[in-house]
């Protein structure tokens, strides 16, 4: 661990403690998702599209109900570096400024992903791709240092069977590229929590076990990884029998766990029950620091099966009540 900055772990623990204090709200305010989550030092966030913030119902619901945001697309590689070395932070800055003006926290998503790479990066090979990846991580993480409390450093690098996704990053850079990305992000912003994020990890399975083994290896060798994100794109009735145990085994490695892109297709009591299972699981794992739903309203969801907590008219659904009750029942357990 000699290659990590002195007292880095202490600085990050202090930053996490400060974040928890910032999220805390008085008990009588716990009638919204964010305020209720804050009572246990957690956050409850939503993915945001900057062009929707001018819609009053969207902005008002977001500001009233959530205490954290993440950009749906505005901080990805194609959006932030459309040309080599020429950065454009306007979309991300809009979301950060809007959130900070309302006392909300910001997650960063995502520094490196096989998808939504700019066209100029897709054909790079060898050290040209390595340098482009590291320069991108450094440029974006430097820009948002102090504004983002956690980064999804690497997104979706494993296949369902637990093998590495054969992306251009894997093919050109080999197995060490994920570690390199985390070390580069740590150098660029030593205070942000650094996360690995993926989907299909909603229980103990081949994919989540491969990620678990990677995190265990990273922790044993001092690679700066602080958290694991579980996207949790679900459908009502999905088998979540090992969901909590899966979160706990990662937490037992000494990393935080976060539900990062939660949505649940379906309706009524079935949808509500699945949302409740996820929320209950997070509340039961002390190192589960927060939940982010992937959108504010069904109206703008990337899915067509009404998977969010507010309907097209921004009315609270049965799932909303189930989540709020779960947060309130679990408050103070952290």
TrEMBL record:
<dbReference type="InterPro" id="IPR017853">
    <property type="entry name" value="GH"/>
</dbReference>
<keyword id="KW-0858">Xylan degradation</keyword>
<protein>
    <recommendedName>
        <fullName>Beta-xylanase</fullName>
        <ecNumber>3.2.1.8</ecNumber>
    </recommendedName>
</protein>
<keyword id="KW-0119">Carbohydrate metabolism</keyword>
<feature type="domain" description="GH10">
    <location>
        <begin position="27"/>
        <end position="326"/>
    </location>
</feature>
<keyword id="KW-0326">Glycosidase</keyword>
<keyword id="KW-0378">Hydrolase</keyword>
<dbReference type="GO" id="GO:0031176">
    <property type="term" value="F:endo-1,4-beta-xylanase activity"/>
</dbReference>
<keyword id="KW-0624">Polysaccharide degradation</keyword>
<comment type="similarity">
    <text>Belongs to the glycosyl hydrolase 10 (cellulase F) family.</text>
</comment>
<dbReference type="GO" id="GO:0045493">
    <property type="term" value="P:xylan catabolic process"/>
</dbReference>
<dbReference type="InterPro" id="IPR001000">
    <property type="entry name" value="GH10_dom"/>
</dbReference>
<dbReference type="Pfam" id="PF00331">
    <property type="entry name" value="Glyco_hydro_10"/>
</dbReference>
<keyword id="KW-0732">Signal</keyword>
<feature type="signal peptide">
    <location>
        <begin position="1"/>
        <end position="29"/>
    </location>
</feature>
<feature type="active site" description="Nucleophile">
    <location>
        <position position="261"/>
    </location>
</feature>
<dbReference type="InterPro" id="IPR031158">
    <property type="entry name" value="GH10_AS"/>
</dbReference>
<dbReference type="InterPro" id="IPR044846">
    <property type="entry name" value="GH10"/>
</dbReference>
């Amino acid at each position: 661990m000699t290659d990590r900055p002195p007292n880095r772990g202490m600085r990050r623990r202090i930053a996490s403690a400060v974040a928890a204090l910032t999220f805390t709200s008085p008990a009588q305010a716990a009638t919204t998702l964010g305020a209720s989550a804050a009572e246990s030092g957690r956050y409850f966030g939503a993915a945001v599209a900057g062009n929707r913030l001018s819609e009053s119902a969207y902005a008002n619901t977001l500001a009233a109900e959530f205490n954290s945001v993440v950009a749906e697309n505005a901080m990805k590689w194609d959006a932030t570096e459309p040309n080599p070395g020429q950065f454009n932070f306007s979309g991300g800055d809009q979301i950060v400024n809007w959130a900070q003006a309302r006392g909300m926290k910001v997650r960063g998503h995502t520094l490196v992903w096989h998808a939504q790479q700019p066209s100029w990066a897709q054909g790079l090979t060898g050290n040209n791709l390595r340098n482009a990846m590291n320069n991108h991580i450094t440029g974006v993480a430097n820009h948002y240092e102090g504004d983002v409390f956690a980064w999804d450093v690497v997104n979706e690098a494993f296949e369902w069977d637990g093998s590495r996704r054969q992306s251009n990053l894997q093919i050109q850079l080999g197995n060490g590229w994920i570690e390199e990305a985390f070390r580069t992000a740590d150098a660029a912003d030593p205070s942000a929590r650094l996360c690995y994020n993926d989907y299909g990890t909603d229980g103990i399975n081949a994919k989540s076990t491969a990620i678990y083994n990677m995190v265990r290896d990273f922790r044993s060798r001092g690679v700066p990884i602080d958290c694991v994100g579980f996207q949790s794109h679900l459908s009502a009735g999905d088998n979540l029998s090992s969901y909590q145990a899966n979160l706990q085994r990662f937490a037992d490695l000494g990393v935080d766990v976060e539900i990062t892109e939660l949505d649940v297709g379906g309706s009524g009591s079935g949808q509500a029950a699945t949302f409740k299972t996820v929320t209950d699981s997070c509340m039961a794992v002390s190192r589960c620091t927060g939940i982010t739903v992937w959108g504010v309203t069904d109206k703008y969801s990337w899915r067509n099966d009404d998977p969010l907590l507010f309907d097209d008219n921004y009315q609270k659904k049965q799932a909303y009540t189930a989540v709020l009750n779960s947060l309130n029942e679990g408050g103070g357990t952290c």
